[in-house]
């Protein structure tokens, strides 16, 4: 004898169809070993100071996301695997981040599939910002 269901739980007969709204398939794999991966966007940020020289001590973040990166020795930070859409980019001096000071105003970028977006961002000087 099947278990009795509580009265407030509806019983479904026949096939059930599920509909998902607002998602994107990024990758898929099948039992035969084949797979597919969506071509996603990439953001490349060149951090510079007020004089245009490369800044190597900053953290790159996309507001409202978990995306973050640190620059290489040429002051370039990259974030890959971006879903299409708008992002607000913030490059904060590493020292300012440790002091808990507010980050600068974000720079807006729009990521698209299979595209590299390059952006030059001026990273505020930690000492000047602290004085201000």
In short:
The chain has 2 helices and 9 strands. It has helices at residues 94-99, 126-131, and strands at 27-29, 35-37, 41-48, 58-62, 68-69, 76-82, 85-93, 107-111, 116-122.
Walkthrough of the structure:
This protein has 132 residues and is mainly beta. Helix content is 9%, strand content 37%. Strands 5-4-7-8 form a 4-stranded antiparallel β-sheet. The longest helix has 6 residues, at 94-99. The chain is elongated and about 70 Å long.
Indicate the topology.
Elements: E1 27-29, E2 35-37, E3 41-48, E4 58-62, E5 68-69, E6 76-82, E7 85-93, H1 94-99, E8 107-111, E9 116-122, H2 126-131
Parallel strand pairs: 3-9
Antiparallel strand pairs: 1-2, 3-6, 4-5, 4-7, 7-8
Number of helices: 2
Query: Cα-atom Rg, whole angstroms?
Result: 23 Å
Overall geometry comes to: elongated
Head-to-tail CA distance between termini: 76 Å
SS elements, strand count: 9
Task: Summarize this structure as a short list of keywords or feature phrases.
9% helix; 132 residues; mainly beta; single chain; 3-stranded mixed sheet; 37% strand; 4-stranded antiparallel sheet; elongated; 9 strands
């Amino acid at each position: 004898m099947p278990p009795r269901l509580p009265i407030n739980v509806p019983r479904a007969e026949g096939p059930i169809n599920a509909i998902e709204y607002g998602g994107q398939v990024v990758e898929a794999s099948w039992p035969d070993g084949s797979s597919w991966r969506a071509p996603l966007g990439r953001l490349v940020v060149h951090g510079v100071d007020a004089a245009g020289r490369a800044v190597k001590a900053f953290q790159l973040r996309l507001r409202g996301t978990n995306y973050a990166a640190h620059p290489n020795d040429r002051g370039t930070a990259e974030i890959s695997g971006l879903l299409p859409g708008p992002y607000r980019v913030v490059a904060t001096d590493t020292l300012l981040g440790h002091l808990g000071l507010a980050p600068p105003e974000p720079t807006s970028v729009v990521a698209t599939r299979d595209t590299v977006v390059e952006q030059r961002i001026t990273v505020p000087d930690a000492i000047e910002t602290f004085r201000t």
